[in-house]
Automatic annotation (TrEMBL):
It comes from the Bacteria. PANTHER family: ENTEROCHELIN ESTERASE-RELATED (PTHR48098), IRON(III) ENTEROBACTIN ESTERASE (PTHR48098:SF3). InterPro entries: AB_hydrolase_fold (IPR029058), Esterase-like (IPR000801), Mycobacterial_A85_antigen (IPR050583). Gene3D superfamilies: alpha/beta hydrolase. This is Enterochelin esterase. It holds the Pfam family Esterase.
Length: 244
């Protein structure tokens, strides 16, 4: 049974007016236990923000890590997405990819950091995503090296277009990437076809290591579902977050 302390969460909903996307984008903001505006906090930015909160239970995990594991308090920002146009925004071949990645870096980040006491160095920002959310997080780190260098990738969708972009990089020694993929993801049917996510993630990890990125890579029994990823989130978060 879940400890009731983990369920006492402060989660706010903010809205960002995006000129680049021509719409309002909703953010879910988790504030840690003992939140104090005069302090400063590391931050985890999640693609598929609604899913990370509802299915990944990331706020409950965060409370447990902070209250029981001694992890330094941190803020979570879940960036919501319209699933009907998700591929267009998250995939590098999508027609909204440039607008979304630019919005993320140039509109969402400044909004959040102006409103909340978040540290503004790249090592205090963690990008997290599942499937295409994992790959777009890596693309953001490649596009904006001054902003991002820490990535949590849950079964990232590293299709050919993404691998070609990574392969063009010479030195990625600044990157720290935590990756996991489920062994039962070898024939996953997506809106772009049937893909072997195990092989795609192995190839991506190799590309990153060849360019001197720090990669923590693992394969486990699991399917391309939140039921698998949810249980892996605590380890992923603890990989990047310091003990208080």
């Amino acid at each position: 049974m879940t400890d009731s302390r983990y369920l006492k969460r402060t989660i706010l909903k903010d809205k960002v007016e995006s000129r680049l996307l021509g719409e309002t984008r909703t953010l879910r903001i988790y504030l840690p236990p003992g939140y104090n505006e005069i302090l400063s906090y590391p931050v985890v930015y999640c693609q598929d923000g609604e899913e990370f909160f509802n299915f990944g239970r990331i706020a409950t995990h965060a409370n447990r890590l902070i209250l029981d594991e001694g992890v330094e308090p941190f803020i979570i920002v879940g960036v919501e997405v319209n699933t009907k146009i998700r591929t267009q925004e998250y995939a590098p071949f999508g027609d909204r990819f440039k607008a979304y990645t630019t919005c993320f870096a140039e509109e969402i980040i400044p909004y959040v950091e102006q409103k909340y006491p978040i540290r503004s160095d790249a090592s205090s920002r963690i990008l997290a995503g599942d499937s295409l959310g994992g790959s777009v997080s890596l693309h953001l780190a490649l596009l904006y090296p001054q902003l991002f260098n820490r990535i949590i990738s849950l079964s990232g969708a590293y299709f050919e277009a993404s691998q070609e972009i990574i392969a063009r990089e010479k030195d990625l020694s600044r990157l720290r990437v935590w990756m996991i993929v489920g062994l039962q993801e070898d024939a996953f049917k997506s809106d772009t076809g049937i893909h072997n996510f195990v092989e795609l993630n192995r190839q991506c990890a190799d590309l990153l290591r060849e360019r001197n990125a720090e990669v923590s890579y693992r394969e486990k029994d699991g399917k391309h579902l939140w039921g698998f990823w949810q249980n892996e989130l605590p380890d992923a978060l603890m990989y990047f977050l310091d003990r208080a």
